Structures are given as structure tokens and as C-alpha cells.
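Hi F.,

I've been meaning to write this up properly since the lab meeting, where we talked about keeping a consistent format for the predictions we share between groups. The idea is simple: the sequence comes first, exactly as it goes in, then the C-alpha cells exactly as they come out, then a line or two of notes. No screenshots and no reformatting. I'm using this chain as the first example so we have something concrete to point to.
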Amino acid sequence: QVRLVESGGGLVQAGGSLRLSCAASRLAFSSYAMGWFRQAPGKEREFVAVIRRGAANTYYADSVKGRFTISRNNAKNTVSLQMNSLKPDDTAVYYCAADRSSSASQYPADYDYWGQGTQVTVSS
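Output, unedited:
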């Protein structure tokens, strides 16, 4: 059974940084694009960032561009999201997801596997 397990969430003040990690198991990790999404209370799940299987291509939501960086380590089956200059609007549950097609989609429905999420809270 495929598992994606996020870690690294927490409470941080505005302007601070957090680094999220997602560890994958029982997955041909290097063959998948890996994405990060987030969902705030009362809102739909939204795209944050994605990295293609070869790590050569990354894409970001406009709201996080220049502040967040996605990276992956195919040897360790992990994907990370470095979040800097955090804002209260970044408060959400953050999910990692795996896309077999590696199309770098921004749509949640295109992803095959999901983690359970990790809470990020940014105080003003």
C-alpha cells in the first residue's frame, strides 16, 4: 500500500520559515511528479507547487512564487517544500500528492495518491 507522510508543519510568526517534508513508501517514486497542495478552512484544496520526476521542472502558484521552493530526493523518496516569508494567508493544511503521469498538473483530481496532511499556521 502506497503511503505519503508529511511532516514539518507547525505554528510560525508572519515572516518566518518552515520546511515541509513528505516521505513516500511503496511507490516508484522517481517515476512520479510530486505536488504540494493546501486547504484552508471553508476553502477548496488549491495547488501550491509541483516538481516533475526528473526534478528539472518545477511550477508554483502565483501566490507562493519567489517564497516557496519545492525539491525532491529520489534516492530517499522524499519531496520537500521550503516556505519562506510566510504570511497569515498561507495558513492551511498542506498535502503532498503523487501523479503517475508526471504531467505537473495543478488539479487535485489528476493525482493518484495523497498524504494525510500537516497543519501550517502563520500568526500575524
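Notes:
The mean pLDDT is 96.
The longest strand covers residues 18-25.

If this format works for you, I'll send the rest the same way.

G.
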